[in-house]
Amino acid sequence: MTMKPYPTSTSTLRNLANASAASLLLIAPSALAQYTPPPPPAPFAGFLNEALRKNDPYMSAWDFGGLARVRYEIRDGAGSAGVPGSIDFRARNADNNNNFLIERIQLHAAYNAKWWSIWAEARSSLAQEDDRYAYAGTPPLKSDGPEADTLDLHQAYLTLGNHKEFPVSLKIGRQELAYADERLVGAAFWHNIGRVFDAAKARWQTEWFNADFFTGRPDVPVDDGFNVSSDYETFSGMWASSAKLPHHLIDLFFLSRNVNSESPIAVEQPKTALPSPRDIYSIGTRFKSKPGDFGPWDYTFDAIGQFGNFRDLRAGAPAERLDHQAYAVVANFGYTFADLPGKPRLAIEYSHGSGDSDPNDDSHGTFDTLYPTVHKFYGYADFVTLQNIHDLRPMLTIKPTARLSLALEGHLFWLADTHDSFYNIGGLPRGGIGTTAGNGYGINPSYDSFLGSEIDFIAGYALTRYAQIEAGYSHFFTGSYIDSSLSNPNFGSEDANWAYLQLLVRF
Predict the structure, then answer these.
(1) For residues 413 and 456, what is the distance between their CA atoms, to the nearest angstrom?
(2) pLDDT (tens digit, 9 = 90+) per residue, 239-253?
(3) d(Cα 207, Cα 237) in Å, to the nearest integer?
(4) Chain segment 411-428, per-residue pLDDT in tens
(5) Which domains, ranges and CATH numbers included, belong to the chain?
(6) Which of these, 317, 331, 318, 125, lies nearest to 221 by C-alpha position?
């Protein structure tokens, strides 16, 4: 099936952008908690599970099922990795339009006994007409793009323990790691492949708190081969949560990311960029108000500090590891109109990830985002991450019916420090150190720090108890920093559009 005969209509997308911008102004300066899909209208255990358990109650120990997701995306003004000259927001002399179809299919089988359980899950990630290269390094690899992985083992783990009988359990094998809202550690389910670790995790659970202690290695997706974990990258940590603080939920965590000098060449032609050498230690906390304890008001506050060392592999950067000291803070305040139809929630969120004030000294101040689910936080068009950034995010969410969820939000972006780069969602700097002004991204301290703004609209509808449809649209308005970076007549800057339509079926 060929999707290219249906090109992006820039004029149509711009009209939608103007209409969405007008709607957003009506709710400013307040706004939203991030979009969450509507719940199914009734519980659903899976077609096969329901059939097997209907006549044999002993089959409740077994679990067979899966999901199928198909999504069509339109990207206009977004760079395609590996395509010559294609960079975000470039207006001339490059192909910056990319329309593609992706599918994700997962099948799992599990067995649950009193003191142990086992889970195995296969995944197939397919893509058609994606212009992005699967590997954009040297030599490049086109294949079906970075979100295609024909067949692989997504998860396979053994769990030992029973928290009703004993406070400690153990989970060993290939598994997803996800904590809090996945801002630092997440499964990246939006991505067509996602993220898993080959890891061991012990959970200590009491009536006062629960705490996970884990260590593992991230899996690296490759083309036409079995995904393996990196031998040169280790992720370990402790994440504890408690609901015993009056009116609050509190998380405390310590995370260790250790990458040695062999990491950049650990796997040939990986689908995700392999990190440079670093030893980064993150310590932080998260406070969240308990639902209803402050009436219609709610809030969440995250604070993370980092220390350790970091090696910058960009041309012109120091050859030795640098002393790493960085931080990030996120604050979200919301108000729910519980007496209004759809219970709309207005919220405002501020996110800040530190940048590096001098790329040529012996220190490194850019926040390391670790292993996040980026898509749902810093604009759904996926241009920005929590590095060297100020992001002011107004939001509105509403559920007009039990099956329908709507979200409208905006973003205002500034670089935290113009002595540092504008980073993409993979944590990589756009351009290099010392890029000539007006000839593409780089480090340009003399430019104004305003990157631009984005508006997003997301809608989801639960068709049945097992199927859900979702659609979204985003428009990114370039700001002075991007316009100055691409001011050369051979480049030029333009706004970017993104739209998608998705169907998710569980079975």
Answers:
(1) 14
(2) 999 999 999 999 999
(3) 22
(4) 999 999 999 999 999 999
(5) 10-506 (2.40.160.100)
(6) 125
